[in-house]
Amino acid sequence: MAFDIEKALQAWRKQLQQSGRVEPGLAEELEANLHDRYEEYLIRGLAPEPAFEAAKKRVLPPDGPDYRAFESSAQSRPWYAFWKSTFAFILPNYLKIASRNLRRKGFYNTINYVCLSIGILTTALALLYLDYETSYDQFVPGVAQKYRMGRTFRSQDYSVISFNGYYGAAPEVQMKQINGLREVQGVRSACHFFTFGQPELLRINGKELPTEDLLHTNTPQAFFDFFQWPFVLGSAEAFSQDLNTALLTEKQAERFFGKDWKEEELLGQTLSTTEEDYTIVGVIEDLPPNAHFDFSIALHRDKIAYWGSRTYLELAAGVSVDAVRQRIDDNMGNINTNLADSELFGGTILQPLTSIHLNSDMLYELKPPGDKRYLYIIGVISAIILLLTVSNYTNLSIAMNAGRSREIGMRKLFGASVGQVSNQFLLEAIFLSFLTLPVVLLGLWWLLPRFDTFMGTALTATVLDQPWLLIVLVGLSLIVGLFSSLYPAVFLARQRIIHLFRGNAARTAAAGLSTRKAIITFQFVLLIGLCSLTLLVNQQLQFIQRADLGFDKNQVLYVNLSEDSSRFEVFRNELLKIPEVTDVGSGSPLGRNPFNQTTYKLAGTDQVFDDAYDISLDYSAVDILNIETSVPEYINDPEQAPKSVVLINETLAQKLMNQFGLSREALIGQTIIEEPEYTDEETGEVGFPFSIAGTFKDINMFSLRERVTPMFLTVYKDPGYVRWASIGYQGLSPSAIIEAVKTRYEALNLDKAFVHSFLSQNIEELYQKEQRIAKLSIYFSLTAFLVAIIGLIALTAFLTTLKRKEIGIRKILGASHRDILLRFNREYVLLIGIALLVAAPLAYLGVQEWLSGFAYRITVQPAVFLLAGLITLLVSVIAVSFMVVRVLQSAPVKALREEQ
Amino acid sequence: MATKVLVAASTKPLVLSILSYGENYGYKIIKEVERLSEGELEWTDAMLYPVLSRMEKEGLVQSQWVKTESGRRRKYYRITAAGKERLEEERRQWLNVNQVFIKLWGMGTEGYTPA
Amino acid sequence: MSEHHQRPPVVRMRGVHKYHYTDQIETAAVHGVDLDILPGEFVAIMGPSGSGKSTLLNLMGMIDTPSKGQYWFNGHDTSRQSAREKANLRKGNMGFIFQSFNLIDELTAFENIELPLIYLKVPSKERRERTEQALASLDMMHRRDHFPQQLSGGQQQRVAIARAIVTEPAIILADEPTGNLDSENSRAVMDKLAHFHQQGATIVMVTHSKEDASHAQRIIELFDGKTLLSEEAYLQNNKK
């Protein structure tokens, strides 16, 4: 059989590949060599097969990887190789050209600079905000193993664990609860506390000041072991050793002892509440703003003076959270018999500490929880601004650098590769974007405190002096610079040399036309989307403000009384002497966050519901709030009214009528049993029965995010105890009514802080997040428009200079200004039309997602998108026309004489 | 046969020297070295090619694939300006060493006398 | 190794065609050119407008690729080379001179001339020496820090020539170097080119001007993309 050299080579190649001895690029070369050697042996007279074998041995000896010995002794690429690369050689030249270009094309570069600064600034701000919002409680050591306990009760989740016996739980009962938890397998430690938002009058160092956010705990050591708040003075041991000890935060220490509190003999001093005395044993640092709760002064007491506590658990490493939760439920009998026995108890919840801020949807949250949707919104809007910035740069730089085709051509002739040419443009963009850093830093320094006040964050305190901020900014500007210039760099570098020397700038600029149109359309999409989003968000807010809540929210002032009815009577009579005060009532305040619901059933039926809210108001309060009831005669003349009546809201009335097929007349007078699961041990009575005296029109006690659910309203004549007095007034300014009420309040000598709030203000606060986001979206939209319009103006300016000659000729040929303006604007009208079609559905989906968070909301009208499109069109037309008119006003001859 | 260390040290200057006479391909380079050293220096192909590719990366030589009339492909190497510079430097160093040996082994006119 | 092997022609073209496609019409700008240019030659390419002079020059400069035929530059078959390889081959081996100068506006005269040396990674000290030498050889030292806009046409072209010769290229390609210049400046430019030729430079120049062409040793006449007889005769003569 004849020897086939090709086949032999093929086999050899395969073998070589499999052995992995040689890199692929070399294999080809070796093969060529093998062939040569083979031919050499043939000439020497060997037969083909032995010749090939011999050649094989010579090319790659089977035993000796002797080239590897060579490899190791040969130099490897030295660390300073970069300095010998072409890039290092050409870098100074790039920088020189970049800086000269900056000066020469000052106008356009200033615009790019401004836009880049704005883009980087907003992105930085958004990044900082997102980082802040997701950083809650991350500072707690070993946070991964730390959880907060919650519970499900009826259909609601609670962030407060009730005590066995509620308010009445003895200290031992409270401790039994914690100790019971500590015994559960998998729980390493447990602590609990409660913080009180209401201000309390404290006396320290001869000063008496109302102080909010007092913390009660009877597990002091565990509490500090868990959170590890750093001490400035004293220690956790001193705090836990004795009962009735107190810790101050630095802020409180300064408040009571002055700026030089560190000089004072602060330890051992007495802190007096209205009831008890405590010994101050230490000062801790103020809590970080991104903790999920805050307190001012911690008090070590034998008993937490509340019906429940906030309970925290540290789990052993590696245990299953769900298993622990299950064991807690199983052992609930040893922890809280009340809960264990209750048919309403739906189980324990273990919530990772870090997910409280953004993911908690429980009742009685410690701080207003964050909302992930707002993080998305801010993220998306800042991304839009960044995209606008980047596309602006891209657009302008394609147009502007079109005039540099000659330079690129020459560089390519000198042997610059495509990569080197693109590198140059990337470098120029990055250079410019680095130059924005001082402005961005200055901007942040100015903006952050304002942003903090506005959004309720503490970015200034947490990031402004952090060294990583600079790293983030440098990284950000690097990325922005890179992205901005990617397209122009590749676009320009890819041009073939022969084209680069032909034609003029105008023609090359026109070459990028379709891309530029696409980019402008894209910008319009963003603008229309953002604009319609802003319009819709603000529309919903207006809707909220104008919505009929079912009661009058204006001119009602709440004042904290917390006294019995006789004191209330005195206060009321005093207030009624103020001519502008229309009436004074008592009862549950409105405009609040959801609280616990209650179970109920219609007497004579079996079905138990658990979705009712139970509130009470006196006749005067119903009158002040102007709630519409089916018993106006009682409201108008409480003297003739029964001592108390229970009304149900329209929602509940409808529900019961539908459920049991009752007429309205038949429903009135029926008995409702509240909390039917409760049986009085002495009398054997089941639940708390009452008869339905009438109905009232639905009121939105909470925000419009919440749907109105069934509600009982107990209207009474004489309150037993009054927490909040509600004062209706007319014709006084807010400050005047506060002043007038405060004088009367202080005359009562109640020994407590005067706490007040307007109903309208309470309601407004319910929408704080929405208000913020609405305003923020306006700011952001304006910024976006600013960036886009600056870009459009610059682009038009550039294009009109290129078309000066064309404009001049048209003018000479008799075209009116109107014709020319139309010509220039026409193209944008079409682009905006296309953009509208793309943007509208996107914005619609986005806004629907946001609106779905509201039980009561606007319906989205298509007209809004048209309006957004019109606004965008108008702004663009003004910008474009402004630039064109400037050219038009110059004499045509001058334009003609210009060399393009 | 030369030692490995010597082979390692001399390969680069030898390749550069050969290429300074004009473009050439691997097999021919090996043959040329063999011929000039009268068989003393026997390079293996597997040793030479990594060296050539590294020299190319260092910018000392440039290469290109060329199709011969017979249809076979060969990679030709050419010395670059940087390569010439390097060769000059190497030449100086080798000549220095050579000078020393000549003196030490008394082959020159000024013989070496130990101090 | 023979010291005296024949130096290959700088340019060797065989059967080179170049077609342009516009509006579905195929036009041959270069139509089967065979051409050798030896080291040290000064060749002028002449012919009426549209005869393919500039296209031929672009092909020589590897700015454009032939549609058909083979082109060896300095012994390298350019048809086998990637763009990067061509860029490397061009680097330092070709000097270009254009009718419209093509100086970079943002760079001074000195910096324009220095640029090709940067791409050749010449160390900065040597770069300065060579650039200054090139400036001096074109009597432009006094304008070294001027930007192109501050120079007259003749001065700009002299800077461009300095930029073309500073790398000591294997060939200088000049596309109507005097096309934008008045007669006095034209003469000065041509004198310089002739001077560099005498010092050994290989030059190919496209020109309309008989006077300019008179500096060349050899004139290639192009007509409808083909060389006229003179070139064939030349090739015959050079055949070994």
Any overview of this molecule?
The complex is a heterotrimer of chains A (900), B (115) and C (240). By secondary structure, chain A is an alpha+beta fold. In chain A, a hairpin with a 4-residue loop joins strand 10 (270-272) and strand 11. The model of chain B has no long low-confidence stretch (mean pLDDT 80). Chain C has a 6-stranded mixed β-sheet with strand order 6-7-8-3-9-10, sandwiched between helices. A 4-stranded antiparallel β-sheet of chain C has the order 2-1-4-5. The chains are: A alpha+beta (900), B alpha+beta (115), C alpha/beta (240). The interface between B and C is medium-sized, with 13 and 12 residues.
Q: By helix and strand content of chain C, what is the structural category?
A: alpha/beta
Mean pLDDT of chain B: 80
* Number of helical segments with 4 or more residues of chain C: 8
| Number of distinct beta strands of chain B | 3
Q: Any idea what the CATH architecture of the domain at 4-80 in chain B is?
A: Orthogonal Bundle
Q: Given the helix and strand composition of chain B, which structural class is it? A: alpha+beta
Largest interface: A-C, 25 and 26 residues
> Distance between termini of chain C?
22 Å
SSE succession of chain B: HEHHEEH
Overall morphology of chain B: globular
Strand arrangement, major sheet of chain C: 6-7-8-3-9-10
Gyration radius over CA of chain B: 17 Å
In terms of per-residue confidence, which ranges of chain C show pLDDT below 50 for 5 or more consecutive residues? 1-5
Determine and state the CATH class of the domain at 4-80 in chain B.
Answer: Mainly Alpha
Note the main sheet of chain C. 6 strands, mixed
In short:
Chain A is built from 35 helices and 24 strands. Chain A is an alpha+beta fold and 900 residues long. In chain A, a hairpin with a 6-residue loop joins strand 20 (671-679) and strand 21.
Any chance you could write out the topology, listing elements then pairs?
The complex is a heterotrimer of chains A (900), B (115) and C (240).
Chain A: H1 5-19, H2 24-44, H3 48-59, H4 66-73, H5 86-104, H6 106-133, E1 146-153, E2 156-158, E3 161-162, H7 171-183, E4 187-196, E5 200-204, E6 207-211, E7 214-217, H8 220-227, E8 231-234, H9 236-241, E9 245-249, H10 250-257, E10 270-272, E11 277-284, E12 297-300, E13 308-315, H11 321-330, H12 332-335, H13 337-341, E14 345-352, H14 356-359, H15 372-401, H16 405-413, H17 418-435, H18 437-455, H19 459-463, H20 467-494, H21 497-500, H22 505-511, H23 513-546, E15 556-564, H24 565-576, E16 581-586, E17 598-602, E18 609-618, H25 619-625, H26 632-636, E19 644-649, H27 650-660, H28 664-667, E20 671-679, E21 686-696, E22 711-716, E23 721-729, H29 734-747, E24 756-758, H30 759-766, H31 768-802, H32 804-812, H33 817-851, H34 862-889, H35 892-897
Chain B: H1 4-19, E1 24-25, H2 26-36, H3 45-57, E2 61-67, E3 73-79, H4 81-104
Antiparallel strand pairs in B: 1-3, 2-3
Chain C: E1 11-22, E2 25-37, E3 42-46, H1 53-60, E4 68-73, E5 76-77, H2 83-90, E6 94-97, H3 109-119, H4 124-137, H5 153-165, E7 171-175, H6 183-198, E8 203-206, H7 210-213, E9 218-223, E10 226-227, H8 229-238
Parallel strand pairs in C: 3-8, 3-9, 6-7, 7-8
Antiparallel strand pairs in C: 1-2, 1-4, 4-5, 9-10
